[in-house]
């Protein structure tokens, strides 16, 4: 959802602008971090940093994009439930970390996720995705 728009960029603009600068943009979430990253030619590093900053600090979470992404995530959850390795992995983490938050799957639980609203997402983001919880890394020539 971070790349789906800001007050100054509509859905699709963030990815298009990074692509036009010769780069690519992506993200992933693991047990203890979320990473938003761009790879692009070093001559365009400032463009990439500015776009990524806008996306992360000013995400607007458009309602229609939230609906679309929710469907995508629910399909991913269903695919995970059909993958024996993933199921085993979740059971292992749930057993190894019976009290710690690592016991929960990164992707979450479908029955809970179905009830998450755009407003819930925005509140969570505003509470946790703040500068005191972030690191910025720029590497290259």
Which helices and strands appear, and what pairs or packs with what?
Elements: H1 13-20, E1 24-29, E2 34-39, H2 45-57, H3 63-81, H4 84-96, H5 110-113, H6 118-128
Antiparallel strand pairs: 1-2
Biggest β-sheet: strands ordered side by side in the sheet: 1-2
How many β-strand runs? 2
Regions with little confidence, pLDDT below 50 for 5+ residues: none
SSE string: HEEHHHHH
The number of helical runs is 6
Identify the quaternary structure here: single chain
Brief overview:
The chain has 141 residues and is mainly alpha-helical. 48% of the residues lie in helices and 9% in strands.
Describe the structure.
The protein has 141 residues and is mainly alpha-helical. 48% of the residues lie in helices and 9% in strands. It contains six helices and two strands. A hairpin with a 4-residue loop joins strand 1 (24-29) and strand 2 (34-39). It is globular, with a radius of gyration of 17 Å. The two termini are 30 Å apart.
Descriptive key words:
single chain, 141 residues, mainly alpha, two-stranded antiparallel sheet, 6 helices, globular
């Amino acid at each position: 959802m971070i790349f789906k728009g800001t007050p100054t960029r509509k859905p699709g603009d963030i990815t298009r602008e990074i692509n036009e600068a010769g780069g690519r943009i992506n993200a992933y979430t693991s047990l203890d971090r979320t990473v938003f990253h761009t790879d692009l030619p070093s001559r365009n590093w400032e463009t990439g940093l500015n776009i990524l900053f806008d996306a992360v600090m000013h995400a607007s979470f458009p309602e229609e994009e939230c609906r679309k992404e929710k469907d995508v995530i629910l399909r991913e959850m269903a695919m995970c439930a059909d993958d024996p390795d993933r199921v085993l992995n979740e059971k292992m983490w749930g057993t190894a970390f019976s009290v710690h938050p690592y016991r929960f799957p990164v992707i979450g639980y479908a029955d809970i996720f179905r009830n998450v609203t755009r407003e819930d997402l925005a509140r969570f983001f505003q509470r946790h995705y703040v500068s005191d919880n972030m690191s910025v890394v720029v590497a290259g020539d």
